[in-house]
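Subject: Sanity check before I submit

Could someone independently write out the structure tokens for this chain? I want to compare against mine line by line before I put it in a report. The sequence has 217 residues.
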Amino acid sequence: MIKVVIADDQDLVRGGLSALLACEPDITVVGEATDGQQAVGLARERAADVVLLDIEMPGSDGLQGIRALAQARPEARALMLTTFDLDEYVFEALRAGASGFLLKTTPPAELSAGIRAVHAGEMLFARSVVRRLVETFVRQPPTPTASGVLSSLTEREVEVLRAIARGLSNAEIGAELYLAETTVKTHVARILAKLNLRDRVQAVVLAYETGLVRPGA
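---
Independent answer below. Compare away.
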């Protein structure tokens, strides 16, 4: 079972999400929170796998919750679920360690599938969010300072990071670079450690910010 904590300051929203997810045979809601701090406490106490977080909540908001979750329960994945798709929220959520970003207009089936995908280690973004991210990276050229952070990587690690940024799985990277999947996993772990990144999501953001990959290239 995938254990989920829901954080939203509106009772109706939390209740609706809980009722929706109760219909899924492999998902169980183990806690409901009204702010980010409470969500983190429940996630740690009840060993949650995925935490659904609204961004704008009184007290400790969703962004603060993500940052605290990374320290309190790094095994858990944070999935932002909000009515807002503003650029600053998206980028802040990604840098804080979010594994996905969905709007509250997302159809129920897509939400359930999204929870499963994030739990499996994949990245998940609403279509409108992806479009805005791509448009922003196209408008903003990389800076020499940002590019320098990749200097600690070997040539092979740069190739793996580029493939991660293209959305390839470990198996697909192995097939493309003629590497065993276990070797790819080792490269990914070293990349994250060298660049002080929490997960593949942050690796993708960095790859775009440094210009290692460009949209449409």
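---
OP: Matches mine. For the report I'm noting this point. Residues 2-135 form a domain with the Rossmann fold fold (CATH 3.40.50.2300).
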